[in-house]
Design brief:
The strands form 7 sheets. A 6-stranded mixed beta sheet has the order 3-2-1-6-16-17, with no helix packed on it. A 5-stranded antiparallel beta sheet has the order 8-7-21-20-19, sandwiched between helices. The mean pLDDT is 90. The termini are far apart. The chain contains 20 helices and 21 strands. A hairpin with an 8-residue loop joins strand 2 (63-69) and strand 3 (78-81). The protein has a domain at 220-381 and 404-504: Beta-lactamase (3-Layer(aba) Sandwich), CATH 3.40.710.
Length: 505
């Protein structure tokens, strides 16, 4: 009897081993082949589109992405729609049965599709009650009124606007043009989607890439915020005095760097303070500051503001991602010190935002936020919480710090310098009656034969009893309506003013 029981036990162990082995083979070793089978892909796609995907919702309850019943005759139960069109295209991204996912549709996919572990209770409840599986709703920080104001202020110009809370890092507005309507890639027939995809990818203006956070540009004089920060952190105060020629002969060369328009600053006096040079955006003075600081200290300050290090001519790769964001983000760049050891004169150009300095408006908004926030730079935040289909909070996303970029003393001094730019200097078109704005202009070369890009970066209220509530950075490509005659103060500053006023009024 015992022998029979032993044999039965051995037989059961063998059978269980075989079943376990088969399951392991199917789930681990053969999983990729099974998944790649075209027949299974079609079944997976149909199953995925039979789930009502969660909504993406702004502050105030505006729905910017939702799943709706597919039209009759479709083999899919739902399709994705974006009621606001291209206004939020770079925020939501697309959810396409042909081209996959992008932006929040990608980074929040497990929540939107109902697959996240935090949604297990909700999914189990639906199963017990016989309800269909539903995804969770994602809530974002965007202020829809400010998003509209950004679009209106930018107008027909090609460029981008980023507005954020300088303390929490909440993204209040994120708008780029040219843009795209994600519904074209997420609904309609396969043929219509493919036609839209082909047109978008053939467009030389690359509308699938957001100028606000996925592209990189020379910052021009906007970068003087970073250079001034390095000077302040290394005991060159706002009143430090510098030689004031209108041209600077670069070290080891006969080449010269000149002020904008080849003009003298400060009425042509022989000396100028750093604050006065900042007000008038004097290239020569900040080239002198950069050369005095040296590459190590300037690079260290750039890193503190979240710019990653590269060794040109390779301008495409970062050693590490210093800014975390829910959307695909291109970190700004500043060359490693070794680059300047081989090309010493180029440090002068890097000090004024040229050569191989690269940023985007989100990076500049973070830099302005650090100054506004007493030197502490926040991580940008776009998603605040996720709620399941029953309305319960499944996950909250708190605000985070990216570290201290400059000391509080330096931030206070730099705030006053940025205030002087708006009140007395090149950024006077950003003035708002009753609201103190602190800002910095930037005008950056944009390729041979092309008009410059115009920048303005600011925050408000500044320097008073109220804490700063908004930081904004704007870039207008190719000089906007003014073309080759454009400057950041003329073209971008009025856009920043309109956005700040819309928010604070």
């Amino acid at each position: 009897m015992e022998r029979r029981i032993r044999r039965l036990g051995i037989a059961l162990v063998v059978l269980f081993t075989l079943v376990f082995g088969q399951l392991s083979y199917v789930q681990v070793f053969a999983a990729d082949d099974i998944r790649a089978n075209p027949a299974n892909f079609s079944r997976q796609l149909i199953a995925e589109y039979n789930v009502e995907r969660g909504k993406i919702i702004t502050t105030g309850g505006l729905v910017i992405a939702e799943s709706v019943p597919a039209p009759g005759g479709s083999r899919y139960r739902y399709e994705r729609r974006y009621p606001q069109g291209d206004l939020y295209g770079y925020i939501t991204g697309y959810y396409s049965r042909i081209y996959g996912r992008s932006a929040l549709e990608e980074s929040m996919n497990t929540y939107l599709s109902g697959e996240a572990p935090e949604l297990a209770i909700s999914t189990f409840t639906d199963l017990l009650l016989g309800n269909e599986k539903r995804g969770a709703n994602v809530f974002v920080t965007i202020d829809p009124n400010l998003q509209e104001a950004a679009r209106t202020a930018l107008g027909s110009n090609e460029g981008a606007v980023v507005a954020m809370d300088p303390v929490s890092g909440d993204i209040l507005a994120l708008y780029s043009t040219p843009g795209f309507d994600p519904s074209e890639l997420s609904s309609g027939s396969d043929e219509e989607m493919r036609r839209a995809w082909t047109q978008l990818n053939a467009d030389p203006e690359k509308p699938l890439l957001a100028l606000s956070h996925q592209e990189l540009f020379l910052p021009g004089s906007s970068f003087k915020i970073v250079t001034a920060s390095a000077a302040l952190e290394n005991r060159f105060g706002p009143d430090s005095v510098w030689p004031n020629p209108h041209r600077l002969t670069l070290p080891l060369t006969n080449e010269q760097l000149q002020n904008f328009g080849d003009d003298h600053c400060n009425g042509g006096s022989s000396q100028i303070s750093m604050t006065e040079a900042f007000e008038e955006s004097c290239n020569v003075t900040f080239a002198e500051v950069a050369l005095e600081l040296g590459p190590e200290r300037l690079a260290e300050q750039a890193r503190a503001y979240g710019l990653c290090g590269t060794l040109p001519p390779d301008r495409t790769a970062c050693d590490e991602q210093l800014v975390r964001f829910e959307l695909p983000f291109e970190n700004g760049r500043f060359p490693e010190p070794e680059y300047f050891e081989r090309n010493d004169p180029l440090l002068a150009f890097s000090g004024i935002g040229l050569d191989n300095d690269l940023v985007n408006p989100l990076q500049m908004a973070l830099i302005a936020s650090a100054v506004a926030n007493g030197g502490v730079m926040p991580q940008p935040r776009l998603v605040t919480e996720v709620r399941d289909a029953q309305g319960r909070v499944a996950r909250e996303f708190g605000s985070r710090s990216a570290g201290t970029a400059i000391s509080g003393v330096s931030a206070a001094a730099l705030t006053q310098m940025m205030i002087s730019v708006v009140n007395e200097g090149s950024g006077f078109l950003a003035q708002i009656p009753g609201i103190q704005v602190a800002g910095k202009t930037g005008t950056a070369t944009n390729g041979e034969g092309r008009p410059p890009n115009a920048w303005f970066t600011a925050f408000a209220p500044a320097g008073g009893q109220q804490p700063p509530r908004i930081a904004v950075s704007v870039i207008v490509l190719d000089g906007g309506d003014l073309g080759s005659e454009a400057t950041g103060g003329q073209v971008a500053a009025p856009i920043v003013r309109a956005v700040i006023e819309a928010y604070l009024r």
